[in-house]
């Protein structure tokens, strides 16, 4: 029940990340972010082009990458946060300690932290915020805090959280929506207003067009934001986004379509970076339904796919042959598990009694046709006829995610550290392997990070060798910046864009 709730939360955010599907090629992934020359202008306005606008701003009750992308770290903060490479670091807490048994976390708050309303932050605010998420199943992040036994504030600067069992992912969960801190008893309507502690405040929301942040000059941190304002212009059409950049309307364009990137490069107006993500282009197999309940059939389908050619076709960052991406603990190169081998695929299908096989791929319509076209072509070469059922996302959630009524499906799973989906037999994959479930539980309970990662890698190898799904690619994202912009994040910007260190030169 817990993991199902968590999965739903991430999937309802896929619409934002889905639009980044084709935004995954371009410059080398190790291209350095541009450094501006000239003097930073503290009065500058930074204009950023984004794809998907939030429906409302209440990040507590509304799921979706569009909210986390702009609000976490900029408007709202937690005790800890994560770096671009997914490492945990302090934020509202100046330090934290973990007991030897991994059950008790003690956080010490920074001095002088205030909410945008001017009210001082105390440990009571932290306790009320986390307790609400733990107790209320309707709040985002509820599942992540389910393992908390108690939350206490021994004094105004200290917070003590006790777990029912050790959880290697607990600190990381606090870097997300589950760990955000709000003012206790605050009556702000968070659907279109805010009262966070971050380096920016909400200045204006022109619904259907843009959201504007203003620098919080009373920010508690060692430094204030490097720009006076940030304007997020929402442009859902990729071509329109490039046109807006070329006409000078934008300083930064995110989710650049690789087919349009040459226009920006040739213009000489922009530097382009390619950033890493934890986005996993996942071809789901319904492991609980014939003929996908036969391991030979699942393996054959994986062997039939030319992953390198598919990556080239969609512009994804790199191939991925297992359930854990490179930025997450437990990653291992599993390319040897399912190399391109259509002849072996035919042999396996023959052994399974399916030399001629018809399957249906259910895919949300906003993903376009590139992935289905490649799969139809590759599968046809091994005797598999693939029918493509393109549906609205709401129908996908109902048919595939909720009712498990599908053969194959494709979505972009964007959440970090979501391997637990393969340890959950109730998840829509229908994959049930007790050994994987045991290893995952051991990985969570393991206090040593390296040992935990080793256990995850063992479990991930089993999942890949069971061919529980196919991971078509690990996505990347292209960002275009005018030369005057410096400090704009490069990696993981589909999930969040930390703007504190961004400057614009005069």
TrEMBL record:
It holds the Pfam family SBP_bac_5. InterPro entries: Peptide/Ni-bd, SBP_5, SBP_5_dom. Residues 88-412 form the Solute-binding protein family domain. Residues 1-25 form the signal peptide. It comes from the Bacteria. Keywords: Signal. This is Peptide/nickel transport system substrate-binding protein. It comes from Microbacterium resistens.
């Amino acid at each position: 029940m817990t993991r199902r709730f968590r999965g739903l939360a991430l999937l309802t955010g896929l619409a934002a990340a889905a639009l980044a599907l084709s935004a995954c090629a371009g410059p080398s992934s190790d291209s350095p972010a541009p450094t501006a020359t000239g003097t930073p202008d503290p009065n500058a306005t930074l204009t950023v082009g984004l794809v998907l606008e939030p429906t409302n701003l209440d990040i507590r009750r509304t799921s979706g990458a569009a909210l986390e992308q702009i609000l976490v770290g900029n408007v709202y903060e937690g005790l800890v946060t994560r770096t671009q490479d997914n490492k945990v670091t302090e934020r509202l807490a100046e330090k934290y300690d973990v007991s030897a048994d991994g059950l008790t976390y003690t956080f010490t708050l920074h001095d002088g932290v205030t909410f945008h309303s001017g009210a001082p932050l105390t440990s009571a605010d932290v306790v009320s915020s986390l307790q609400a998420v733990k107790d209320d199943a309707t709040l985002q992040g509820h599942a992540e805090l389910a393992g908390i036994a108690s939350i206490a504030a021994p004094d105004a600067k200290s917070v003590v959280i006790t777990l029912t069992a050790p959880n290697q992912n607990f600190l990381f969960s606090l870097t997300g929506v589950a760990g955000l801190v709000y003012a206790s008893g605050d009556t702000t309507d968070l659907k279109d207003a805010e009262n966070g502690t971050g380096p920016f405040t909400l200045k204006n929301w022109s619904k259907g067009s843009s959201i504007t942040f203003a620098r919080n000059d009373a920010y508690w941190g060692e430094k204030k934001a490097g720009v006076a304002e940030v304007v997020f212009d929402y442009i859902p059409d990729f071509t329109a986004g490039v046109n807006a950049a070329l006409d000078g309307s934008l300083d930064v364009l995110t989710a650049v379509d690789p087919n349009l990137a040459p226009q920006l490069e040739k213009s000489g107006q922009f530097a382009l970076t390619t950033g890493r993500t934890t986005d996993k282009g996942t071809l789901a197999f319904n492991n609980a339904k014939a003929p996908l309940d036969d391991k030979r059939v699942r393996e054959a389908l994986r062997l039939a796919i030319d992953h390198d050619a598919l990556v080239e076709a969609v512009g994804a960052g790199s191939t991925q042959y297992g359930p854990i991406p490179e930025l997450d603990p437990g990653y291992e190169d599993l390319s040897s598990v399912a190399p391109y081998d259509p002849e072996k695929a035919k042999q396996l299908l023959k052994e399974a009694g399916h030399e001629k096989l018809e399957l249906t791929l259910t895919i949300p319509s906003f993903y376009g046709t590139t992935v289905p076209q490649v799969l139809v072509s590759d599968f046809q070469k091994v005797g598999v006829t693939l029918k493509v059922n393109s549906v609205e996302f709401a129908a996908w959630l109902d048919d595939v995610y909720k009712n498990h009524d599908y053969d194959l499906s494709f979505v972009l799973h964007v959440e970090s550290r979501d391997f637990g989906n393969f340890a959950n037999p109730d998840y829509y994959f229908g994959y049930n392997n007790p050994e994987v479930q045991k290893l995952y539980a051991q990985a969570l309970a393991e206090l040593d990070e390296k040992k935990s990662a080793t256990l995850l890698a063992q479990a991930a190898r089993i999942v890949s060798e069971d061919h529980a799904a196919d991971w078509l690619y690990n996505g990347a994202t292209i960002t275009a910046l005018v030369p005057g912009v410096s400090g704009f994040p490069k990696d993981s910007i589909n999930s969040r864009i930390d703007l504190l260190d961004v400057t614009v030169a005069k």
